[in-house]
Amino acid sequence: MKILEIRRHSIRSKPSVHLSQQGLNLARLVGQGLGPFDYVATSTLTRALETAIAMGFAVNEQTELMSTYGALVEAEAPWPQPYFHYSEIVKRDGHATKYAYQLFDYYTSILNKISDGGSALMVNHGGVVELGVVACLPDEDYSTWGDEASHCEGARLYWEKDKFVKGVVLRVSK
Question: Which of 79, 127, 129, 133 has the fewest CB atoms lying closer than 10 Å?
Answer without folding.
Answer: 79
